[in-house]
Structures are given as C-alpha cells and as structure tokens.
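Suppose you are handed only these lines of text.
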Amino acid sequence: MILFDKVWSAGAAALLITVFALPAGAAETTIEISVKDNKFQPAEMKAPADTPIVFKVKNLDAAPVEFESEPLQFETVIKPNMEGVVKIKAQKPGRYEFFDDFHQGNKGTLIIE
Ligand SMILES: [Cu+2]
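From them, the structure of the protein bound to copper (II) ion can be written out as follows.
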C-alpha cells in the first residue's frame, strides 16, 4: 500500500496547510458565476448554512450588470469584462433569489442547506 500511503500523506499535508492558512473560524464558500447573454451561469447553486459566502461574478457581456439580491441585501454594478466580488455573512437554510437589476429577466437562486 505504498501508493495509498503517499496519497494519504499528500492529503494530510494539504489539510495542514489549509488549516494554518485560514484565520480561526473564517472558512468561507466561494461561488463562481458568469453572466453571458444576460444569463447567470449557473443560475442555481448550493452552499452550506454555517459559512460566509463569497460570490465572484464575471460579466462576459458588453453591457453592465447590477448583481442584486433583496433577501441577501446586496447590489453591485459589474462593468463589462470585469469581475464583481460580493461577500455575505453565513445564512440560514433556504432559497435566496438574486437577479440582474439592469436585465430583470435574468434571475438565479442560491440554495442554502
Ligand atoms: Cu438595484
């Protein structure tokens, strides 16, 4: 089981690095979304209930996007070919809608579970 041991060691080393790189209790979930042809891709995603969330939203369209959510209480304008970053606190389980306020047919859902 030499291979198994090597894999385990690499995994353990990676875990240690991760633990030391993060301040205590600050783990967060990163969600990467792109906007293309006025659609969020993906339009639905899941995240765990007990960790802060970081949205990274790439606008691949030629028009600005206003990435907004009423239940999650944020809005931010993302220029064409730019990436917007929105950090939110840990949420309770549920479904949280977001949308592009400049193109209101473009909607998505974050599912916290
Ligand atoms: Cu708005």
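What can we learn from it? Helices lie at 2-21. Residues 27-112 form a domain with the Immunoglobulin-like fold (CATH 2.60.40.420).
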